Amino acid sequence: MLHAPLTTLHVVSLILQRFAEQPELRPHLLAGSGIGAADLDNADARITRVQELQVCANALALRADLGLDLGRSLHVSSYGLLGYAALSAATFGDAWRLLLQYPALLGTYFRLDLQVEGELAWICASGYRDAEALEVFNVEMCLASLKLIGDELLRQPLPLEGAEFTYARPDYVSRYAQSFPCPLRFSAQRNAFAFPAALLERRLPLADSVTHGDMVERCRRLNAEFSSRQAWLERVRQLLAAQLAEPPGLENLAQQMHCSPRTLRRHLQELGTSYQGLLDELRFERAKALLSEEQWPVYRIAEVLGFSETASFRHAFQRWSGVPPSRFRA
User: Fold this and answer.
1) Whether pLDDT at 295 is above 60
2) I need a surface site. Which of 109, 129, 163, 212 has the fewest CB within 10 A?
3) Neighbouring C-beta atoms of residue 174, cutoff 10 Å
4) Distance CA 205, CA 47 (A)
5) Which pLDDT band, with edges at 50, 70 and 90, does 228 fall under?
6) What's residue 3's pLDDT?
7) What value does the CA radius of gyration of the chain take, rounded to a whole number of Å?
8) How many degrees, rounded to 5, is the angle at CA 29 between CA 5 and CA 111?
9) Where are the beta strands (DSSP E) in the chain?
């Protein structure tokens, strides 16, 4: 699966909406993410997966069934051009095959597959490789959203024959009925839900060959551009990560990328980030990893991350996480 280093603020915004009546919780929800008010007010802002997962972890500590709830808010229209391409597909099966063809545009943390087994079709989510503590949350959000997409493609509830999950039965299992009104099996071999395979041949109510062809071509171009940009950005990140102790600066980094500083700055801006933003992100990730190891004193971490003074590192970490390094370590 292609993991996107950058994503939108959509999930973060949904989480903040869930707790809108408790504004005092906002600092807790954003703690450690490095997301500020300016980001939230910028419709074009992009954040990293690490930032998104941090907000998810903060919110999950307040509400265990949050993944299911968020999944029921991620409509087919939440996926932009890809969602509209699916809605205009000829059949239910065509729509699913299109959706699963572009995991990067779905922004999923999983590898998604459509498996036909006898009279049942299974939508499966596997290959999770991110924060282990958030796996159940992400499975719930992913599959609940995919079930909702099925409903909206058919314009009627998708009849489920069963749902399976690799983890143990949660305490809030009664909440599953809203998304999965079917027999549930936990501690299973896969994360998936099943519906009658015959539905794959059903013609969709909003099928339109002209619109679909146009949307598919746009998705193809967008995916190609997205993949190219992400590969380019990953190269920038790798170069910068290898030089954290002595950051190269924008001009030297541009030379290493064989482009002008102006071009580097423009490309980063188009991706919703900047040289300083990437440097802060990489320093923050490395700092959190080193603070989890007791043998690393704070002054040494500051040196490794290229700070001339420990106080400068402390101030930067407080700005990134909302807490000083010593409190984070504790």
Assistant:
1) yes
2) 129
3) 9
4) 36
5) confident
6) 39
7) 22
8) 35
9) 6-7, 47-48, 111-117, 120-126, 162-164, 184-185, 191-196
Is-above-0.85 flag for pTM?
A: no
Instruction: Decide: 172 and 105 in contact? Cβ < 8 Å.
Output: no
CB 250 within 8 A of CB 23: no
Quick one: pLDDT at residue 6?
64
> By percentage, how much of the chain surpasses pLDDT 70?
98
Q: Any idea how long the chain is? A: 330
What's the burial of 304, exposed, middle or buried (CB within 10 Å: 0-12/13-18/19+)? middle
- How is residue 256 written in tokens? 């290493």
Name residue 286's amino acid: R
Predicted local distance difference test score (pLDDT) of residue 2:
31
* Strands annotated E in 268-324: none
Q: What are the tens digits of pLDDT across the range 134-181?
A: 999 999 999 999 999 999 999 999 999 999 999 999 999 999 999 999
296 by DSSP, 3-state: which?
A: coil
3-state secondary structure 58-103: HHHCCCCCHHHHHHCCCCHHHHHHHHHHHHCCCEHHHHHHHHHHCH
- Helices 275-291 and 249-256, packing angle to 10 deg: 90
